[in-house]
Write a structure and sequence with these properties.
The complex is a heterotrimer. By secondary structure, chain A is mostly helical. Chain A contains six helices and no strands. In chain B, the strands form two sheets. Chain B has a two-stranded antiparallel sheet. Chain B has a two-stranded antiparallel sheet with strand order 3-4. In chain B, helix 3 runs parallel beside helix 5 and helix 14 (394-418) packs antiparallel against helix 16. Chain C folds into three domains: 2-100; 107-235, Cupredoxins -  blue copper proteins (Immunoglobulin-like); 244-336, Orthogonal Bundle (Cytochrome Bc1 Complex, Chain D, domain 2). Helices cover 32% and strands 17% of the residues of chain C. Chain C has eight helices and twelve strands. In chain C, the strands form three sheets. In chain C, strands 3-2-1-5-8 form a five-stranded mixed β-sheet, with no helix packed on it. Chain C has a five-stranded mixed β-sheet with strand order 4-10-9-6-7. In chain C, strands 11-12 form a two-stranded antiparallel sheet. Classes of the chains: A mainly alpha, B mainly alpha, C alpha+beta. The interface between B and C is large, with 100 and 96 residues.
Chain lengths: 210, 555, 363
């Protein structure tokens, strides 16, 4: 089984697994900089318009944001457990935990969806469409545009992560992964942790510091 | 002349192509075997075709521009077409030629062989990278046909968000292109870490690998920032969702920060692989170990690192604070130092060597002049008070063309000649090669040296019409551009002729000690019949040919 | 020496107080750059020749594969080079600070850039377009902003440049050494007519500047392309009484109308004025309108209200910028052109763009 999955360009499975893990870390580094550009913009504009940002973010519901934080942290925990159990060859249990994490991801998106719907209802929209208050002072619109951009980009990552989690959950269930083979599960787990970490930065920036 | 260029030691032995081990070109046949190949060498060749096509396209745009500038008023195209041309020239050359050129062609081809590996770590990602590149090229070409872009390759807001052209699609195309770059660079980094042959320590690797490694790191961390800023531009252009619009308190200068955070390191993405090629060429043709291996290897990393902290020198007159300008100016000087270390090391490598004066070596000589001059003018434009006058004039245009064309393109040509026998198993005509090299150099000097003077005189870049006093220098520059174009076509022709009619090359026509030369030319599908064992560095010219071969066993 | 190097390097005149100093650093840097590049190339070339394989095979003593490179030499060169770079940086930064920090007593003038013209507002209430009048021998501080996209205010003779940003104020100061005229070029790409967004600085003797502020002399608009213009301010023709049509031409030039509209029927960015008056044109939204006084005035004040079909929505509003007398003068000018036959194809916009020969002046 394990010899079969060694592709021809590698000498040993250890090297092959090491390569896969290293590649994932490199990719995550790259992803970080993708968000980094937006975090840098946030810092730049918040420095320029401190009060405008506070006014814009005051509108966000701390309760919903915090709920989502708890949901995501829990999902990260279940993912970590899933990775742990697949290493111990408990594939069905791991599959269940990964599926549960996917469900947590869905809960997160539903809550976020409610928030978005509320914003849309109140015309708290990005950029030129923002008309929650007439003649918003400079910075309010920027703060809200950044909020939309950053949470939407994060949302896309949540969706991507959920798809990956669902796929590995199914494959775990089918017995493709186990002690002999679990790098893919680990990598998906890593990706999900990144999604979680990004949110842990977004949460204070958009919910707690108004 | 041509005799002197072939190493006396190299025996014109058979191609190493046995009946059971055909070379990679003949290993499989049929279109399918190419389009779905996972062989890094075939993917490299497909990239080769792609980047050459786009070099040609970008070159045509350049010639249109130069021809238009023959007269101070309109010559044969209108202002709108002219603005489109310089934008498309920049986009094509930067993203479709310059950034992928050396890594995806020569890097893809020789990097795994240099490491003694059968392939890159992720052959399928490598193939995907090619198709993503093709996709980005299709998007960009489509955008060129459906409205083009007239923003300049820098996409400065707010002009880019109000321009009536296909800015959205350009942004998307470049974003997709960035994905391709990232895929290739992840592959290179992982391959270098995990797939070195037995005995290949980091300090035995050929210097080209170090350069590719440093380049990959820059691509990995800089490209996403550009991707994000261009997505913001595209969204703004398409939907009016803007972060940079002054009407809402946005700051156009922030875009410049984000753009140059990528695009200044992008300059090193374009030039570091060229340094790698030059290091290989210098050592191989002078039969000498590099004067200081570590100086060359580590200065690449130094440039990669410091390159992330110099972007502000593009913005001295853009409204940056004096303090920031001072810091960015000082940091920029370090890049000059790292580059100087490399240049001195190459020159010192020549000393005491046994130099065969082949075409790649002549390109190296041009590189030496053009890169040192271009690089020093880089330090000059990083000097704040001088930059105030030079910023956005033809001086800057001349400066970066000295680096990009004089540095990267000449190295690309040097690499194209140097690795030609390895890639295709044949030798090009050395006399024609030398001649075209001279034509390229003269054409280049005539094109870009006058532009320094134009910049001194105050002619701004991206000018469709210009005051009459600049005309004679523009005419010189245009003449040079045509000569440069002719030289490039001749060089291409020479290589194409050699493809079919060139003399057969042995595995190691240059007598190099670098590891890609220990396998057959062209290599077999899996590069080596058995995994090589390496007991020496890539530059052991003190060892005799036999001993060197013994200590890097393959086949 | 200064003059010789300046001419060799194709540098323009040194018309501001800081220009000569900057040029001296320029000479220093460029000579070292050129010299360094040549030196490295010559050494490289010499090695290529001396250690060529045929020679080394004849004389194997030249071959030194084991030679350790002189690390100390390299260290000395690198450290020396670094010292020089730092020296450049110190001088450059010091000069940069001098450029950036205006003196206390500087005269303040507001500059607005827009596609594709410069507008200058003086504290005494006067204003001008494309031509900036300043007193010589006195520091002038420009406060710049843009109405639309980023422009850059560049005066090569002064060695000065500053980006002009929308939503932000930037500053630039200079002191013209003596009376004279100097090109203003836009150096940040700003659209189709970027290269014609030029203007000029006219440095006047202080007393003449005072007179100009009071609207007496010299004439606000001057004929002839920049290269052919008289070189001293005193060559200006005195103001004269002129016809409405002449005044219209002058106003059209001064307000930048001729950057987009032509008088002879040549196609350009805006509809040509030749033969336009009195015709009925198609509108962008499908209707049509007769070109009369009302429509022309509306087009000047609210240009986007009814756009001539086939033209870009690029014209800025002149509401509050153009005096009523100028409006009527421009209408008179257009009336005078009603019988000029447009060149074939002139009604099609974007055919070929030509730049009007005169940028500021009348014919």
């Amino acid at each position: 089984m394990s010899a079969q999955r060694l592709v021809e360009q590698f000498e040993t499975l250890e090297k092959q697994d090491h390569a896969a893990r290293l590649a994932m870390w490199m990719f995550l580094g790259s992803e970080t900089l993708l968000f980094g550009a937006l975090f840098a913009s946030y810092g730049y504009y918040r420095g320029m318009y401190p009060s405008g940002f506070v006014q814009a973010l005051h509108h966000n519901s701390v309760a919903l944001g915090t709920t989502n934080t708890v949901v995501l942290i829990t999902s990260s925990f279940t993912v970590a457990l899933g990775v742990h159990f697949i290493r111990e060859n408990k594939a069905r249990l791991a599959a269940g935990l990964l599926a549960l994490s996917t469900a947590f991801g869905a809960v997160f998106l539903v809550v976020k969806g409610f928030e978005y719907a509320h914003h849309i209802h109140e015309n708290a929209l990005p950029a030129g469409m923002y008309s929650f208050v007439d003649q918003p002072p400079a910075g309010v619109v920027l703060g809200y545009t950044l909020y939309w951009f950053m949470t939407a980009l994060h949302g896309l990552h949540v969706i991507a992560g959920m798809i990956m989690l669902a796929v590995v959950a199914v494959l775990c269930w089918k017995g493709r992964y186990g002690t002999h083979r679990y790098v893919a599960v680990e990598n998906v787990g890593l990706y999900w942790h990144l999604v979680d970490v990004v949110w842990i930065f977004l949460w204070p920036l958009f919910y707690l510091t108004d | 002349m041509s005799q002197a260029t072939i190493d006396a030691d190299a025996k014109p032995e058979s191609l190493g192509v046995g009946a059971d081990h055909p070379d990679y070109l003949r290993a499989d046949s049929g279109l399918r075997s190419w389009l779905l190949t996972k062989d890094h060498k075939r993917i490299a060749l497909m990239f080769y075709v792609g980047v050459i096509l786009f070099l040609g396209l970008g070159g045509v745009f350049a010639l249109v521009l130069r021809t238009e500038l023959l007269t101070p008023e309109q010559t044969f195209i209108d202002a709108n077409t002219y603005n489109q041309m310089f934008t498309l020239h920049g986009i094509t050359m930067v993203w479709l030629f310059m950034i992928p050129a050396i890594p995806t062609v020569f890097g893809n081809f020789v990097l795994p062989i240099m490491l003694g590996a059968k392939d890159l770590a992720f052959p399928r990602i490598n193939l995907a990278s090619f198709y993503v590149y093709v996709l980005s090229a299709i998007i960009l070409l489509g955008a060129m046909l459906a409205g083009g872009a007239d923003t300049g390759w820098t996409f400065y807001v707010p002009y880019s968000t109000t321009s009536p052209t296909a800015v959205t699609w350009m942004g998307i195309g470049i974003f997709v292109n960035g994905i391709s770059s990232i895929m290739t660079s992840v592959n290179f980094i992982v391959t270098t870490h995990t797939m070195r042959a037995k005995g290949m320590s980091w300090h035995r690797m050929p210097l080209f690998v170090w350069a590719s490694y440093a380049t990959s790191i820059i691509i990995l961390f800089a490209t996403p920032v550009l991707g994000m800023s261009l997505v913001l531009i595209a969204l703004d252009h398409a939907l009016g969702l803007t972060l940079f619009n002054p009407r809402y308190g946005g700051d156009p200068v922030l875009f410049q920060h984000l753009f140059w955070f990528y695009s200044h390191p992008a300059v090193y993405i374009m030039i570091l692989p060229a340094f790698g090629v030059i290091s290989e060429v210098v050592c191989s043709f002078s039969h000498n170990k590099p004067a200081s291996y570590r100086a060359i290897a580590y200065s690449s990393l130094g440039i990669a690192f410091i390159g992330f902290f110099t972007w502000g020198h593009h913005m001295f007159v853009a409204g940056l604070s004096e303090f920031d300008a001072g810091v960015f100016g000082a940091l920029s000087m370090f890049v000059g130092i790292f580059s100087a270390i490399k240049v001195f090391t190459w020159v010192a490598t020549l000393r005491g060597g046994s130099i065969s004066f082949a075409t790649p070596m002549l390109y190296f000589l041009w590189f030496l002049f053009l890169f040192v001059f271009g690089g020093m003018t880089g330090v000059a434009v990083a000097t704040q008070s001088l930059d105030v006058h030079w910023h956005d004039t033809y001086f800057v245009v001349a400066h970066f063309h000295f680096i990009m064309v004089g540095g990267t393109l000449t190295s690309f040509l040097a690499g194209a000649h140097y690795w030609f026998p390895k890639m295709f198993g044949r030798l090009y005509d050395e006399r024609v090669g030398l001649l075209t090299s001279v034509a390229v150099f003269i054409g280049f000097v005539f094109t870009f040296l006058p532009q320094f003077l134009l910049g001194n005189g105050g002619m701004p870049r991206r000018y469709f019409t210009y005051p009459e006093r600049y005309q004679w220098l523009n005419v010189l520059s245009t003449g040079g551009a045509w000569l440069l174009g002719a030289g490039l076509i001749l060089a291409l022709g020479n290589l194409l002729v050699a493809l079919k009619w060139g003399k057969r090359a042995g595995p190691n026509p240059w007598g190099s000690r670098s590891f890609e030369w220990i396998t057959a030319s062209p290599p077999s599908k899996h590069n080596f019949e058995e995994t090589p064992e390496i007991e020496r560095s890539a530059y052991e010219y003190t060892l005799s040919e036999e001993v060197a071969r013994e200590r890097a066993k393959a086949r | 020496m200064n003059e010789l190097l300046r001419r060799i390097l194709f540098l323009p005149r040194q018309a501001s107080t800081i220009a000569e100093e900057i040029d001296k650093l320029h000479y220093f840097v460029i000579i070292i750059t050129m010299g360094g590049a040549l030196l490295v190339t010559l050494i490289g070339g010499w090695f290529l020749f001396r250690y060529r394989r045929t020679a080394v095979q004849k004389d194997p003593s030249r071959r030194m594969p084991e030679a350790t490179p002189a690390i100390w030499l390299e260290a000395v060169v690198v450290v020396g080079l670094f010292g020089m770079f730092i020296l450049w940086w110190v001088i450059g930064f010091w000069q940069f600070m001098a450029i950036r920090v205006p003196p206390e007593n500087a005269l303040e003038i507001y500059v607005t850039g827009k596609q594709w013209m410069w507008k200058f507002a003086y504290p005494q209430g006067a204003n001008s377009i494309a031509t900036l009048y300043v007193p010589a021998g006195r520091p002038v501080k420009l406060i710049l902003t843009s109405r639309d996209v980023i422009h850059s205010f560049f005066v090569p003779d002064f060695r000065l440049k500053q980006d002009v940003l929308p939503g932000r104020l930037t500053t630039l100061w200079f002191e013209a050494k003596e009376p004279g005229r100097h090109d203003i070029l836009c150096t940040e790409y700003c659209g189709v007519s970027h290269s014609t967004m030029r203007g000029e600085v006219i440095a006047l003797a202080p007393e003449e500047y005072e007179r100009w502020l009071q609207g007496k002399s010299p004439a606000p608009a001057v004929a002839g392309p920049v290269d052919l213009r008289p070189s001293s301010v005193t060559d200006y023709a005195p103001p004269e009484l002129v016809s409405m049509v002449r005044q219209g031409e002058r106003a059209a030039a001064e307000h930048g109308c001729l950057r987009c509209h032509t008088l002879d029927g040549t196609p350009h960015l805006g509809p040509t004025w030749a033969g336009l008056y009195g015709t009925t044109i198609r509108l962008e939204d499908g209707g049509s309108v007769k070109v009369d006084e009302a429509y022309i005035t509306e087009s000047m004040m609210d240009p986007l209200a009814r756009i001539h079909a086939g033209y870009q929505r690029i014209m800025p509003s002149y509401l509050g910028q153009i005096r009523p007398a100028e409006t009527s003068a421009i209408i008179e000018l257009m009336k005078s052109l009603r019988d000029v036959r447009p060149k074939p194809g002139a009604q099609a916009p974007w055919g070929t763009v030509t730049v009007p020969e005169t940028r500021e002046g009348g014919q």
